[in-house]
Protein: P-loop containing nucleoside triphosphate hydrolase
Organism: Arabidopsis suecica
Amino acid sequence: MAGSSGGSQMSSPAAPKILLAKPSVSPITGKFGRGNSDDDNASHRSRLPPVSSLNMLSDSWDFHIDRFLPFLTENTDFTVVGVIGPPGVGKSTILNAIYAFDGSSPGMLPPFSVQSEEIKAAAKHCTIGIEPRVSAERFILLDVQPVFSPSILAEIIRPDSSSSVPVLGNDPLSAELAHEIMCIQLGVLLASICHVLLVVSEGVHEDNMWHLMSTVDLLKHAIPDPSSPALSRLQISEIGPEMEFKDKLSEGNEYMATPIFVHSKLQDQDLSPKNILQLRKALAQYFESSSFRQGRNGSELVEPVSLVIPSKSSRNQHESYQLAMWKLRDQVMSSKSTSFSRPVSEREWLKNSAKIWEMVKNSPIIAEYSRALQSSGMFRR
């Protein structure tokens, strides 16, 4: 695995026998305050996630480790897999497949809840914050709330169009701009703390996730990986906007998770070998000069990995939905992902991830990018 020496080749293991937690029981209820001043004040206070959740990221945009920490050990041979994408593209379903959840077992709940028809009809999102699980093979899986989500935007917007979530400290932002910055912050965090990052889009013509990851590559500057010795010695209270991050980095190349670009719900007409080849060529060209092309040793250049998943209703003669999902699982399980700079335990990884989140929220580069977007006139003031 990748905890200490990168992802090594391994055969597909048996499905884990234990699920760590039930999914959240109230995914439709709004999480962010939009009402009077009491609601506004409450939205800025740190609140723990629901009892039924192991959530690491609260609705006040704060990182919490207390609920998930008891499930982690001092083991250093583990792999962190995150997922990012817009709503409804199958992120939770993909993680359930990687977890090897067997839905045919009576009475068993999936490790990650998926959108029900009720949630779809209400145009709501299912995952809130970052929901973690850990498999028997010590794969730490991170299910993340959707990016570019109208329902999240609707929940954070106040009557005056400002954001109820303090994404950049006390800097007041419009809800639209805050939502954009939230997407970038999640991407930078996952690129910093994961070994493998699944970037999921729907169909072959949607490239918003490519643009987002290109922005993440641009703005993820001077953010150390969770194994940095300097980070382990750092206290969260020491992290602020004035802090210079560069001296906190370990020597060598800046860390970047290994991305796997997944295009889901493809229709039969999109699944021809010619179309798939064109998609992969376009992806390679788009990220030609990106940090995502760095190999395990930081010097070699590798082509970005892309996988396609047909829609469940597809009758494609080349590959079925189920086969594509198992190929994706095998790709993740055997991925030669980038290693952290030194061995780190699961528990230390989680504690240092909380510090990295504070660095992301206090990043002067992301703050400057936010001011540039605001000055561009693209977002309300």
About this structure: The first helix runs from residue 2 to 5. The two ends are 46 Å apart (CA to CA). Strands lie at 79-84, 130-134, 139-144, 196-202, 258-266, 305-310. The chain is about 30% helix and 10% strand.
